[in-house]
Amino acid sequence: MKKGGHIIEIITPHKSTEIKELEGIKVHCIETRGPPGMVALKMIRKALKTDGDLFYCHELDPLLYSIVLKRITRKPIIWDCHEYLVPMKKELQGRLSAVLTEIGISICAPRIDHIITVDNRLAKTLSKLGKVTVIPNYPRLSDFNEPTSRKKNEKFVVLYVGGLTERRGIKIILEAIHRLKKRKNISLRIVGGFYDRELEKWAHKYDSENELNIDWLGWVDYRELAPVIADSDCGLFVNQPGPRYLKGLPTKIFEYMIMGLPVVSATGPLLDSLINGKNLGVTVDSTNPESLSDGIETLMENSNLQDMGERAHDTVKKNYCWEAKEDKLLRIIEKLTS
Asked: Virtual CA dihedral for 167, 170, 174, 175, nearest 10 degrees?
């Protein structure tokens, strides 16, 4: 939006109330402490004070706030829904949260002006509620430097980036590496954090007891992710089958590929077609540690791994980067504000 000449202000929950600047964009931080509903009230009041020409809402809570903003200002509102929110809420917060989320979306979404989403399956569901445009959440080329000739690591480095939950396959990953480490010179690097304290304890205990020597990097700033990926040999995406996952092409695999990494991915119709069809890595049964370890080993033994990585990079650069899609969003904003 900034690149298109628009003035942007961001309003977001934060640990303290302050104003920051991020890449020339003003960010209004709203402190999250306080009684229930206070953060919502503060964010709505701040949004009204900005006197924007258009409100762009991310995630669920801002969609709910948008009803108030719409009624008071009569300004256009875009809702950006880039997750399968109902199954996500069910997974992370339980059935009641999922039901309330579904009710909230069914009431609020029909009252806004446009919905942006990331894949055709989600768009099909949301199209019953209003006008929808699909703009995949692909990585920006400007966030990832051109990959250079890859130097050979002493050990074959397997990389996982993302949240650490059972649904995202962290147990399967550790068990697969344990199997493979018995016969291969391999190292696992993990970028991301846990949401479950018990799972975190289990993972670190499993690592220690089996001498996996995992490189736990924790959360890494997105702008500093490129060199971490570039220093690895393959990327993992092993989300478990379910309504929330494997219905589209996850952004994560494109972040690996844009830096020249082949991928070992969960299977799925679109994933199989892209990865196996273009020879950009391998797909495996993400529920089976043996299948995952076999998939990683297949890549390790591939003599054309460098060519596979270069092909992955070129594929993303031509078809799966944000720069190839951003004009679609700018045209929607222009139409709503003209």
From this structure: -10
Rounded to whole angstroms, how far apart are CA atoms 201 and 8? 41
Task: Give pLDDT, residue 220.
Answer: 93
Q: What is the mean pLDDT of residues 96-121?
A: 93
Q: 157 near 189, Cβ under 8 Å? A: yes
What predicted TM-score, i.e. pTM, was given to this entire model? 0.76
**Spatial contact of 177 and 300, defined as CB atoms under 8 Å apart:** no
**DSSP state letters, 263-329:** EEEE--HHHIIIIITTTSEEEE-TT-HHHHHHHHHHHHT-TTHHHHHHHHHHHHHHHSSGGGTHHHH
The residue whose two tokens read 């890449």 is 23
Q: Which helix (H) or strand (E) holds 258?
A: helix 251-258
Of 12, 89, 80, give the one whose Cα is nearest residue 46: 12
| Domain residue extents for the chain | 9-136+323-337, 141-319
Superfamily of domain 141-319: Glycogen Phosphorylase B; (3.40.50.2000)
Alpha carbon distance 338, 334 (integer Å) = 6
